[in-house]
Specification:
Layout (H helix, E strand, L loop, with lengths): L1 E6 L20 E5 L5 E4 L4 H9 L6 E5 L23 E6 L10 H5 L17 E6 L6 E3 L2 E7 L7 E7 L2 E5 L17 H19 L4 E5 L4 H5 L9 H11 L4 E4 L7 H14 L7 E3 L5 E3 L1
Parallel strand pairs: 3-4, 4-5, 5-6, 10-11, 11-12, 12-13
Antiparallel strand pairs: 1-2, 1-14, 2-3, 7-8, 8-9, 9-10
Helix pairs in contact: 3-5
This protein binds zinc ion (2 copies).
The site of one zinc ion (ZN) has 6 residues, from loops.
Length: 293
């Protein structure tokens, strides 16, 4: 199995001279199994460039797993060119939102509304199937097994573990470790604390021993202090998760829109200095980076 980053930015695309090295497109990861089955994690703007590479191989079958439906994870879907051509098969996987009760078809149909996009959903020529995933229920795609787990974010968000060809990876989507909503003097503090601990252990177990852990590490500690509850992780939380889960390699992603190439280089250098045990296993995700597992 191998994977490649096509988009590593959070929130909004950030093209320009300051983001040439790491890239300015929003989240998208391509996975290829040894049998060349195509699995895509998230459909941010990075999926457009990925789509260009698929045109010569059409008809294609693509399995797109959406972590959650915030714009930066779905906004490339209407530009995934294979949807416009007959004989392509697109399987779009995602959760059923407990608040709206809607399935993952909303991710595409909402963007193809008359006011927002010139082409109507009925004009898409590919066969598109919408499949609902549920926590802990493994989906088989050819030789790959994909298992979703709910991770804390202000909307339903799945982290996905992919096991295939004797190797494994885990991608968090957007994820902030849950914090205790009670104060130590509150009656419910202790019971909520054990609930959080149990949930944390479940998450670490889902990531256990993966060859590649790809985590939302949007913030520095200073930034996080004033962004509690926004739904994102930090460099520190990413390293903590990788340590607890015994991940072989750690990829930090979902870079802040304001983060320049120079900023990310500096952060990488500092993290390696502070965590020498991560030498050769800690990477800042960048567009075009391809990893064989
Ligand atoms: Zn995001
Ligand atoms: Zn999000």
């Amino acid at each position: 199995m191998k994977f490649k980053f096509w988009g590593v930015r959070g929130s909004i695309p950030t093209p320009g001279p300051q983001t040439i090295k790491y890239g300015g497109n929003t989240t998208c990861i391509e996975i290829r199994t040894d049998r060349n089955e195509l699995i895509i994690l998230d459909a941010g703007t990075g999926i457009h460039a990925l789509a260009q590479t698929l045109l010569r191989d059409m008809p294609i079958t693509a399995h797109i797993f959406i972590t959650h439906t915030h714009w930066d994870h779905i906004q490339g879907l209407p530009f995934f060119l294979p949807i416009f051509f007959k004989n392509n098969r697109i399987n779009l996987y995602g959760g059923q939102d407990p608040v709206t009760d809607e399935n993952i078809n909303r991710a595409l149909s909402a963007q193809l509304q008359y006011s927002y996009f010139p082409i109507h959903e009925a004009q898409l020529k590919a066969r598109i199937d919408y499949l609902t995933v549920r926590p802990g229920e493994t989906v088989c795609v050819g030789s790959a097994r994909i298992t979703p787990i709910i991770l804390n974010h202000p909307v339903l968000n799945f982290g996905y573990r992919v096991d295939c060809d004797g190797s494994s990876l885990f991608f968090t989507g957007d994820f902030e470790s849950q914090i205790n909503i009670y104060q130590p003097e509150d009656d419910d503090y202790a019971s909520y604390r054990s609930f959080l601990l149990e949930k944390h252990q479940e998450i670490v177990a889902a990531m256990q021993d993966v060859d590649a852990l790809i985590v939302d590490s949007s913030y520095t500690d200073e930034e996080y202090a004033i962004r509690l509850g926004w739904g994102h992780g930090t460099y520190r939380s990413g390293i903590q998760l990788a340590t607890e889960a015994n991940a072989k390699r750690l990829f930090l992603t979902h870079h802040e829109p304001t983060r320049t190439d120079a900023d990310l280089d500096l952060i990488h250098r500092d993290l390696l200095e502070q965590h020498p045990q991560f030498a050769d296993k800690l990477f800042i995700a960048r567009e075009g980076l391809e990893v064989c597992l």
